[in-house]
């Protein structure tokens, strides 16, 4: 982008080297090794993490080792001035527990206690975590499985995994804080996720809820409140790169070429305006619209569309698909998290995935479970391999990023890359394998265009969804699995039974043989809403860590137990991990409550 997307500096990771404060021999012998442990952790995190906008993650180390409350306060003061949003305490030795801990209850925090026998870092870790738990300030405990020698400065692989998992989730928490969700319109067709819940956004995410009426799009189009020069560039790019697909409308209802062209002009303007509404555009000030130039500082948003808009105007599908993709007429850029039908809960699910991976996300209906028997009856085909237990059809009309074609590659395999790793050639391939079908008038009386593509098989993906349940609050569902490909005739037969102008992904979740992951049907039957969001890769463990930081319980997942990483306090709420998660989240409530 040619201008900064969001207001506010990116959060930093604060590293707190904690030390045994006893002078006259003890502290002096530990100063160098303790500070070096902090520097080592900072170097590791900075080299292995990026913010979702592609920036390198910056670490801030306390000015001195922390041996007591005065130095803890000095460190907290520095972290406030430096914009630290995530706190990591490190130590190779015994220190004074509650005197040295980080007391900021809203900043995600972890303690890495060195596993060595010369100085009992593990003893401090246990004492400090007990202090955190007693004070109601949950913290993550990081402790290597194997004993290391005191002069060993390496970071074991199991410690690396936890450091990265904690830091990625913590940065996501800190990045959301203070940003906005922009609701463009209101409730679409009675979909619960588009009933904006301010308490969820404010108490759990630390975000604002901003609202506009969809008539703002009409006003800006009619008054020309958009960058005219960019509009001409965008329209030219669209005509050259966005191929029209088959028109499935009855012949007597099909639009003329002139009407199609006007729709293209309209939806391109909508895309520009939707973006400007979210993050602003300084060029609007130059044409006399200083207020509109500011935007809403929206890190996520959604467009109601149906039905009040789409019964009369071209739909928002082009806007949604282009904004959520990692590229447009300005080139490769960070994707926007933009929800179809203003499903804010799916928009936040998309945001979770993006902040953890830096990649574009796919918004879908969790449309249909196809059993092997049903596939055989309808197509005559016998399912085998990954699809042998059936599959789920993921499909929706709007906010499916074109990255979801699977036309990006690593080692010849289909992927969805972090946006900063995408090549121009991959952009061309994504566009080449996408067509834009004229809106089905039975759904969209005002016309418009929907992206049409088929996701390549063989991609590991993670689908997730936030739901709000009265009496509980928000809960998170997670399903790791993979995309599959069907034989062309099988795909066509099944796809033609629904709206064939929409992007399709065939999804098979990883099964555990138990509960909601007993079989593919059970995953579909236990999914909590009509929508889901998926990201490339198996990131279920990262999502679980993120949810625990926000105090959102996870009611459904297929992540291996040894990868689950939550604050140490969760162990005090019982031995059953799912039940203890619910009890802990109910006790601590939303992070910003």
UniProtKB/TrEMBL annotation:
EC number: 5.3.1.25
Subcellular localization, as worded in the UniProt entry: Cytoplasm
Keywords: Carbohydrate metabolism, Cytoplasm, Fucose metabolism, Isomerase, Manganese, Metal-binding
MF term (GO), any: arabinose isomerase activity
Pathway named in the protein's UniProt entry: Carbohydrate degradation; L-fucose degradation; L-lactaldehyde and glycerone phosphate from L-fucose: step 1/3
Active site: 341, 365
Recorded GO CC terms: cytoplasm
BP-aspect Gene Ontology terms: D-arabinose catabolic process; L-fucose catabolic process
Pfam families linked to this entry: Fucose_iso_C, Fucose_iso_N1, Fucose_iso_N2
Catalytic activity: L-fucose = L-fuculose
Occurrences of domain L-fucose isomerase N-terminal-2 (ranges): 179-358
Binding site for Mn(2+): 341, 365, 531
HAMAP family: Fucose_iso (MF_01254)
UniProt family annotation: Belongs to the L-fucose isomerase family.
Protein name (Swiss-Prot/TrEMBL): L-fucose isomerase
Species the sequence originates in: Polaribacter vadi
């Amino acid at each position: 982008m040619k201008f900064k997307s969001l207001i506010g500096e990116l959060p930093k990771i604060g590293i707190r080297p904690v030390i045994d404060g006893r002078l006259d021999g003890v502290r002096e012998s530990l100063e160098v090794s303790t500070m070096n442990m902090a520097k080592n952790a900072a170097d590791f995190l900075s080299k292995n993490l990026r913010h979702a906008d592609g920036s390198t993650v910056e670490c801030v180390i306390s000015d001195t080792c922390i041996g007591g409350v005065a130095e803890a306060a000095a460190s907290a003061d520095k972290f406030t001035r430096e914009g630290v949003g995530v706190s990591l305490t490190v130590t190779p030795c015994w220190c004074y527990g509650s005197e040295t801990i980080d007391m900021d209850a809203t900043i995600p925090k972890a303690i890495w206690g060195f596993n060595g026998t010369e100085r009992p870092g593990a003893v401090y870790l246990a004492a400090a975590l007990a202090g955190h738990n007693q004070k109601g300030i949950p913290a993550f405990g990081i402790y290597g499985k194997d004993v290391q020698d005191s002069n060993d400065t390496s970071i074991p692989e199991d410690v690396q995994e936890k450091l990265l998992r904690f830091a990625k989730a913590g940065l996501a928490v800190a990045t959301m804080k203070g940003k906005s969700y922009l609701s463009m319109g209101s409730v679409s067709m009675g979909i619960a996720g588009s009933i904006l819940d301010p308490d969820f956004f404010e108490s759990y995410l630390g975000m604002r809820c901003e609202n506009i009426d969809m008539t703002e799009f009409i006003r800006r189009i009619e008054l020309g409140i958009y960058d005219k020069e960019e509009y001409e560039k965008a329209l030219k790019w669209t005509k050259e790169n966005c191929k029209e697909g088959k028109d499935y409308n009855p012949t007597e209802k099909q639009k003329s070429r002139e009407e199609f062209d006007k729709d293209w002009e309209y939806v391109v303007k909508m895309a520009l305006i939707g973006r400007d509404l979210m993050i602003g555009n300084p060029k609007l000030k130059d044409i006399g619209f200083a207020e509109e130039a500011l935007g809403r500082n929206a890190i996520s948003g959604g467009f109601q569309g149906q039905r009040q808009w789409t019964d009369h105007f071209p739909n928002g599908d082009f806007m949604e698909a282009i904004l959520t993709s990692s590229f447009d007429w300005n080139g490769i850029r960070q994707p926007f998290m933009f929800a179809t039908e203003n499903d804010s809960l799916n928009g936040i699910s998309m945001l979770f995935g993006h902040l953890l991976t830096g990649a574009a996300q796919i918004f879908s209906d969790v449309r249909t479970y196809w059993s092997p028997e049903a596939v055989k009856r309808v197509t005559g085909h016998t399912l085998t391999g990954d699809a042998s237990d059936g599959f789920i059809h993921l499909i929706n009309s709007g906010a499916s990023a074109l990255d979801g074609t699977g036309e990006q590659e690593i080692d010849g395999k289909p992927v969805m890359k972090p946006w900063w790793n995408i090549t121009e050639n991959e952009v061309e391939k994504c566009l080449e394998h996408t067509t834009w079908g004229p809106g089905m008038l039975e759904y969209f009386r005002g016309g418009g265009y929907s992206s049409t593509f088929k996701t390549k098989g063989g991609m590991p993906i993670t689908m997730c969804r936030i739901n709000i349940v009265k009496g509980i609050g928000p809960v998170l569902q997670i399903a790791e699995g993979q995309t599959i490909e069907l034989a062309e005739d099988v795909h066509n037969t099944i796809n033609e039974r629904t709206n064939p102008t929409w992007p399709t992904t065939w999804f098979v979740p990883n099964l555990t043989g138990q509960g909601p992951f007993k079989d593919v049907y059970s995953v579909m039957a236990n999914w909590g809403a009509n929508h889901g969001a998926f990201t490339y890769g198996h990131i279920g463990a990262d999502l679980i860590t993120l949810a625990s930081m926000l105090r959102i319980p996870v009611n459904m997942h297929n992540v291996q137990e040894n990868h689950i990483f939550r604050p140490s306090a969760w162990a005090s709420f019982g031995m059953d991990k799912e039940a203890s998660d619910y009890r802990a989240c109910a006790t601590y409530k939303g992070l910003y409550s």
